């Protein structure tokens, strides 16, 4: 672990680093996995802490993206403090809590996520019509595929909701499938959007006023004014990474759903 915590009376003292923390610059609290037992095996000895951010000893460094937005951050902890009782799920049980959190994040987001993609799809169709590309058979086929994928997302959302209501405990499997499907589908959709825009996609289409708050409350740069579709295209490149990389999702599906053997570990060679 890159972050460790030690008890000092009624508080945890935290030192280390956490990277890719979404909107940490605006947060009052942050969930943090910290090693609380350095002698424990790899996935044990880790606790899930709810850490107050408004204190000395915490430095947030935004990681600026190509469009000037900075959703992701690197956070440094230097003797930062966290109340002893701010442990979620018990001391040294953080890995299990984190996996449960990720499972719900990937699963619950699938229940309504298709709605934003449908709104975005309608925007793309409007651009295709405005440019006379809605009669292009290849563009029409790609638009039809995109619409089909959005309907699949909607159906997958119902599956996740049904699982939660019936207690069939397929959250991890459904979440991995859903996350992998929507993130890869959205990347292809945004590539289609850029193809429809054509050479216009190479030109900054926004205005200095429009980039102050981009989709999803993303902050942009006034000297790099992307419009809504360009911003979505840039952000879509990260979607197969955050929340569990697509490669990890495939491992989860292969090992936990299909029962395939685990990927062999690479052993470090001695010099």
What secondary-structure arrangement, pairings included, does this model have?
Blueprint: E1 3-8, E2 11-19, E3 29-35, E4 46-52, E5 58-62, E6 73-83, H1 94-130, H2 137-166, H3 171-197, H4 228-236, H5 246-257
Antiparallel strand pairs: 1-2, 2-6, 3-4, 5-6
Helix pairs in contact: 1-2, 1-3, 2-3, 3-4, 3-5
What is the compact description of this entry?
The protein has 271 residues and is α+β, with helices and mostly antiparallel strands.
Count of DSSP helices?
5
CATH superfamily of the largest domain: Butyryl-CoA Dehydrogenase, subunit A, domain 3
Radius of gyration: 22 Å
Query: What gross morphology would you assign?
Result: globular
> How many beta-strand elements?
6
What is the CATH class name of the largest domain? Mainly Alpha
Explain what you see.
- With 271 residues, the chain is an alpha+beta fold.
- It folds into 2 domains: 3-92, Beta Barrel (Butyryl-CoA Dehydrogenase, subunit A, domain 2), CATH 2.40.110; 95-257, Butyryl-CoA Dehydrogenase, subunit A, domain 3 (Up-down Bundle).
- 42% of the residues lie in helices and 17% in strands.
- It is built from 5 helices and 6 strands.
- It has helices at 94-130, 137-166, 171-197, 228-236, 246-257; strands spanning 3-8, 11-19, 29-35, 46-52, 58-62, 73-83.
- A 4-stranded antiparallel beta sheet has the order 1-2-6-5, with no helix packed on it.
- The longest helix has 37 residues, at 94-130.
- It is globular.
- The mean pLDDT is 87.
